[in-house]
Amino acid sequence: MAAAAEADTLKWEGKAATTLPLPTAEQVWPLLADFCGIHKWLPTLDTSYKVDGVDGQPGLVRYCASGPPPPPDGGDLQWCQEKLVEIDPINKWLSYEILDNNLGFKSYRATLKVAPIDGGDDPIGCQIEWSFVGDPIEGLGFADFCAYLDLNLQGMAKNIEKALELSGLEDS
Q: Is the N-terminal amide bond of 72 cis, ω within 30° of 0?
């Protein structure tokens, strides 16, 4: 986890990255480019669906939610609405921002990138990078948020690898 800001600055900025040793960027990108299907890969989400806009186009808005944590913590449904701001299918990246939420975000913009691992003539595996910039989150430290993001990215990578393995795409 690389961190470029401290908690007492005006904006937080950081990124997490993970390597998937088998699937190629071409296999992983369509899964992440499905902006409203993020709940299939992100282990902390129970649902995500389109609210407005055109699939795959800037302006697309999704709703994401997770149920309350189990007892003894309990709590409320956690949710956010996010808008696809930019998408580049050639270079395999997308950026989105949080429009509304009950998670404590005031401003948040993130970019997900998928890149091949350079293996010479034969690309082997890929890397997913999740970078962000946003206002500090009340009640949450910068290091804790970065660790949370990294943990989610690792879980996402495992879910993607498993899905591709089950579909047989990793062998092609």
A: yes
The helix/strand/coil state of 98 is strand
DSSP bridge partners of 93: 88, 113
What is the pTM assigned to this prediction?
Answer: 0.86
Hey, what are 23's tokens? 């699937």
Q: What is the number of alpha carbons within 13 Å of residue 1 lying toward its C-beta?
A: 18
Q: Quick check: helix, strand or coil at residue 122?
A: coil
Q: Report the distance separating Cα 35 and Cα 87, nearest Å.
A: 10
DSSP class of residue 45? -
Q: State the alpha helices, DSSP H only, in the chain.
A: 25-33, 142-167
Q: What three-state secondary structure class fits 43?
A: coil
Q: Which position has the token pair 């404590």? A: 104
| Number of residues assigned to the chain | 172
Question: Closest Cα partner for 16 from 33, 30, 2?
Answer: 2
Q: Parallel, antiparallel, or unpaired: how do β-strands 47-52 and 12-20 relate?
A: unpaired
Q: What is the pLDDT of residues 32-70, one digit of tens each?
A: 999 999 999 999 999 999 999 999 999 999 999 998 666
